[in-house]
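REQUEST FORM: STRUCTURE PREDICTION
Request ID: SP-0412
Submitted by: Lab K.M.
Chain count: 1
Length (residues): 209
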Amino acid sequence: MDDIVTSRGAPSRRKSGVPRPTRSETEAAVRTLIAWAGDDPDREGLRDTPARVADAFEEYFSGYRLDPIDVLSRTFQEAGGYDDLVMLRDIRVASHCEHHLAPFMGVAHVAYLPNGRILGLSKIARVVEIFAKRLQTQETLTAQIADAIEQTLRPRGVAVLIEAEHQCMSMRGVRQPGVKTITTRFTGALATDASYRDRFLQMVHGPRG
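STATUS: Completed
RESULT:
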């Protein structure tokens, strides 16, 4: 896990070797962006915006301070012999694209085939949240979630499907609001056995209660 602290004092250093700016450097950067956009960072409505943006970034990108492998490390042996699909549907996704720092929001559907052990259901949703609170593409996010579950649980297969709307596409560029990007990742039996994969997709698109 990256060594990042949340203090407002001296910068920390990440595994990449890139130093983390101080709080004052961060707020100064926001002031520069406001001025570059064409406004006055010293006017009343914007005076406290640099501090607010720094606070918001702490929340938006809190996933860098958490290790998804640690979250998934506790599993349970007692599953009563259950070995069929375990699925969480409609996990909220709120992330930021690494290309424009623009939000993308949607839902993730995650399933796995147990191989003797099961995960606490909240752990899956938590791992989705950790990876989402980092900068990446939706494609990378989808793969990260599946790979983390595969690495820690060693199930017979994993399936992840994310559908999200990207503000970098709806608010700029081609300006196409409402367009959803859909990405998938299948491993193990869910990649090789079409019947498992079809059942997962039927569960994704099935009626909501």
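NOTES: The longest helix spans residues 138-153.
Reviewed by: T.R.
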